[in-house]
Amino acid sequence: MEHIYPQKAHDQYWTTRFSKFSQPQKNALRNSLGNLLALSKPKNSSLGNKPFNEKRDAITTGYRFGSYSENEVAFYEEWTEKEILERGIKMLNFLEKRWGIKIGNEEQKMKALGLDFLASQKNHQL
């Protein structure tokens, strides 16, 4: 399982985008549904902790050259809390529609994703 925002995010790309969050919030973002992408183990290993644009565009191993889910992620220009939340809600909306599971309104979905701490920021920044 690929963490788009990596578990060991030391590259400047990641540190500048996520430095405003506490460690527990960073962990919630990393492990939230919208940040996870199913990949083969070799592909996951090759992408590792690279910045998003490198993960997206790497020749033959980048998201642009993969599965439908990878291709969807490749359309994003950036990868921040906004994209993690947007993708997570989109995935929950799919679950609701496909399997008739009722998760709730957007606020309830944010809570289900473990990202309810973004609610106050959503009104200002997202």
Defining traits:
single chain; 126 residues; mainly alpha; two-stranded antiparallel ribbon; 3% strand; globular
Description:
It is a single chain. By secondary structure, this protein is mainly alpha-helical. The protein has one domain (2-122). The chain is built from 8 helices and 2 strands; from the N terminus they run βααβαααααα. It has helices at 12-18, 23-31, 41-47, 52-57, 68-74, 81-99, 106-112, 119-122; strands at 2-3, 36-37. It has a two-stranded antiparallel ribbon with strand order 1-2. It is globular and about 40 Å long. The chain starts with a strand and ends with a helix. The mean pLDDT is 93.
DSSP helix fraction: 40-55%
* Mean pLDDT figure: 93
Order of helices and strands: EHHEHHHHHH
* Low-confidence spans: none
- Structural class computed from helices and strand pairing: mainly alpha
Please state the CA-atom Rg, rounded to the nearest Å.
14 Å
Question: Which SSEs are present, and which pair or pack?
Answer:
Layout: E1 2-3, H1 12-18, H2 23-31, E2 36-37, H3 41-47, H4 52-57, H5 68-74, H6 81-99, H7 106-112, H8 119-122
Antiparallel strand pairs: 1-2
Question: What is this structure, in a nutshell?
Answer:
The chain has one domain (2-122). The protein contains eight helices and two strands; from the N terminus they run βααβαααααα. The chain has helices at 12-18, 23-31, 41-47, 52-57, 68-74, 81-99, 106-112, 119-122; strands at residues 2-3, 36-37.
